[in-house]
Amino acid sequence: MFMYYPGDLGVVAMIQESYLRNTFHAFVSYSQHDVDWVRNSLLPNLEGPAGGLRICHHEKDFVPGKTIIENIISCVEKCRRSVFVLSAHFVKSEWCHYELYFATHQRLTLGSDSIVLVLLEPLPQYLIPSKYYQLKSMMNRHTYLEWPQDRAKQRLFWANLRAALQTDLPNAPVTQVQEHWAEERLEERQGLMG
């Protein structure tokens, strides 16, 4: 739910309320076959001192006891963007398909362009199964980032990805966002224990 106040401050309050609900900058969807690249390259370059972003991914943020579908929906809803690490393995995964479906639905519901595509390896259109028609359409209409094999170009790749994830972020105080995030995580954990 958005909070709206009349006048110029109303828009800022509405955006900041939306930002606070989204406790992560991005949800990352990837095939288990690509986990090494995600763990060793993507996460270190986006999270912590290198990137300063809060990234949501299933290994860290899925809540035990919830169904996988419930976890996917919850995680996508808590994020401003969804990053899809595309590979031949990605398009063979049912779970990746569900994650793409829910992120696309959220994008349509919110009317925002919240999906970022990262092409980890060349992925010819003919290799993409027909059930991924939304992905084919997005790849034809939107710009996506391609992982460069040339190390000299990788720095620019990370800068572009960080920029895509930080687009339109309001200037909400970090401590306020962190406090909200910590409270929400505590409530989730207490709900599991009680």
UniProtKB/TrEMBL annotation:
GO terms for biological process: inflammatory response; innate immune response; toll-like receptor signaling pathway. InterPro entries: TIR_dom, Toll_tir_struct_dom_sf. GO terms for cellular component: plasma membrane. It is found in: Membrane. It comes from the Eukaryota. It holds the Pfam family TIR. Keywords: Glycoprotein, Immunity, Inflammatory response, Innate immunity, Leucine-rich repeat, Membrane, Receptor, Repeat, Signal, Transmembrane, Transmembrane helix. Coiled coil: none annotated. It is a single-pass type I membrane protein. The keyword Membrane applies. GO terms for molecular function: signaling receptor activity. Residues 22-165 form the TIR domain. This is Toll-like receptor 1. It comes from Pundamilia nyererei.
